[in-house]
Amino acid sequence: MRQTLIAGNWKMNLTVSETEEFFKNFKFRKKENVELLLCPPFTDIPITRFFLERTSVKWGAQDVYPSPKGAFTGEISPSMLKDLGCTYVICGHSERRQILGESDEFVGKKVQAVLKEGLTPILCVGETLEEREAEKTEKRISEEIGAAFSLLKKEEIEKIVIAYEPIWAIGSGRAATAEDAEKISFFIRHTVKEAAGKKAAESVRILYGGSVNADNIADFLKEKDIDGGLIGGASLKPESFLAIYKNA
Ligand code: PEP
């Protein structure tokens, strides 16, 4: 039985003092069957840890550099994140792929490095509007997943989380339909099965991301292959994020 995961990605938002404000209003009733996760910017991780360490809510990072240490100015290693109590790391968000030019191979190395440190990668995959209109969604997702899986053992694949985030749906207020998101999530699960077998296909959690809110989360979670949501904009306010959690 896969546990539902509701993950917030703050992107480059909220200063440390704004994060303190956020947590002053972060009050919720725990749900046994839903895991809650926040991925703030690196600078907010220590204060996030301070507020969350005695709760059931987990915290993670939005990115990582795939080397244990060394001359990589400005970068953060998996062990640095582990030392801050992070348990999840988002890898290959489309903003990093598109704005910072991260390749499928580089993202694959991140996934591998995160697993090596005993953390859980959330591998983001998804198509642009042009790829969708050219019916290349499955091809694009196969490339993204294939580059990561080529570096992983079957036992490692079992542990990852995959977030299906159609790029045209991110921050646009135009979410995919639950049916479309399920179709691609089914395809992703099938791809996992082909690469790593039935056990992996049954254990890998697949999230949908792209304009998720409190009104549409339940529709996505009704689908057989969708195990949670990756939430950007609506995770920035405690009320909207917790409303999603409540409806999940
Ligand atoms: C995201 O950035 O991963 C995301 C899904 O953003 P939003 O929820 O704002 O569409």
Fold and architecture overview:
The chain is α/β, with parallel strands linked by helices and 248 residues long. The chain has a single domain, classed as Aldolase class I (TIM Barrel, Alpha-Beta Barrel), CATH 3.20.20. Helices cover 42% and strands 16% of the residues. The chain has twelve helices and eight strands. It has helices at 16-24, 45-52, 78-83, 94-99, 104-116, 129-133, 137-149, 154-157, 178-196, 198-203, 217-221, 238-247; strands spanning 4-9, 34-39, 58-61, 88-91, 120-125, 161-164, 205-209, 228-231. Strands 1-2-3-4-5-6-7-8 form an eight-stranded parallel beta barrel, surrounded by five helices. Strand 1 (4-9), helix 1 and strand 2 form a beta-alpha-beta unit. The longest helix has 19 residues, at 178-196. It starts with a strand and ends with a helix. The site of phosphoenolpyruvate has 13 residues, from strand 8.
Which secondary structure elements does this structure contain, and how are they paired or packed?
Layout: E1 4-9, H1 16-24, E2 34-39, H2 45-52, E3 58-61, H3 78-83, E4 88-91, H4 94-99, H5 104-116, E5 120-125, H6 129-133, H7 137-149, H8 154-157, E6 161-164, H9 178-196, H10 198-203, E7 205-209, H11 217-221, E8 228-231, H12 238-247
Parallel strand pairs: 1-2, 1-8, 2-3, 3-4, 4-5, 5-6, 6-7, 7-8
Helix pairs in contact: 5-7, 7-9
The chain binds phosphoenolpyruvate.
Outline of this structure?
By secondary structure, this protein is an alpha/beta fold.
Bulk shape: globular
Spell out which ligands are present.
Answer: phosphoenolpyruvate
- Please summarize the sheet with the most strands: 8 strands, parallel, barrel
Helix/strand structural class = alpha/beta
Mean pLDDT: 98
Based on DSSP secondary structure assignment, what is the total number of beta strands?
Answer: 8
CATH 2nd-level architecture: Alpha-Beta Barrel
Gyration radius from CA atoms, angstroms: 17 Å
N-to-C order of helices and strands: EHEHEHEHHEHHHEHHEHEH
